[in-house]
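# step 3/5: fold
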Amino acid sequence: MKTDQVTRLETCLDYHFKNKSFLEEALTHRSIGQVNNERLEYLGDALLGFIIAEALYKLYPDTSEGELTRLRSVLVKGDTLAKLARQLDLGNYIKLGTSELKSGGWRRKSILANAMEALIGAIYLDSSLESCRKTVLTLYQDLLRQHTPDNLVKDPKTRLQELLQSRQLPLPKYTIIKEEGEAHQKVFTVRCNIPEVDISVQSDGFSKRNAEQSAAQIALEQLNFS
C-alpha cells in the first residue's frame, strides 16, 4: 500500500500500526498467493465475537442469554461487517488476484467482511486486546445504539421453530441438496422439510446459514397462510 493510503485508512480507523506488515497481510486476499489474510481473519472473527459479546453483556445486564446471542449474531454477521468495511472504503485497499479484480471482488460482501475481520486480528497482534477492543467499539458505536433488545427481530429459523413449537409440531429438517461454484464463491441450495404440515421448500444462499434462513422464511410464509 502507498503511504498516503495507509495514512488515510489509519485515520479512519483511529489506529496507527507500529508494524505495517500486519496491515498489509490483513488486506491481502488469498487470490494473491499463500501469504494472505485467512489466518488473521480466523483470529479477528474470534476477537470480534468476544468483544461484542462482552459489550452486550455489560450494556444489558437483564437480557437473557438467547437475546444476547441473537444480538451478537446480528452485529457480527457478514452483512454488518461488509457495511463497516464500505464505510472505511476498505475495497479500495484490498489486494486481489487478477481474476478477482476482473470480477469486481473489491465489492463482494464476503471479501469485504473477511478483510474486516482480518483487520481486527491485525490490530490485536500489533498492539493489545485493550487497543483492539477500543477500535472495535469505536467502529461499532452507532450499531450498538441501533441494535438493542427492544428492537431485536428474531431470524426466520428462530421464528419458524417457535411457531412450530406453539402448534406442538416437530422441528424442521434442513438438508443441503446442492453446492455450486468455486470455493470462495459457493452457492448452497438448502431444503427445509416439515412433513407433518406438507411443507417442503428450498432456497439458495452464499452460505449454508443464509440458505437455511431463506428457506425458513419461505416455510414461515406458507405456515402463516395455512
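# step 4/5: annotate
The chain has two domains: 3-151, 156-224.
# step 5/5: archive (pending)
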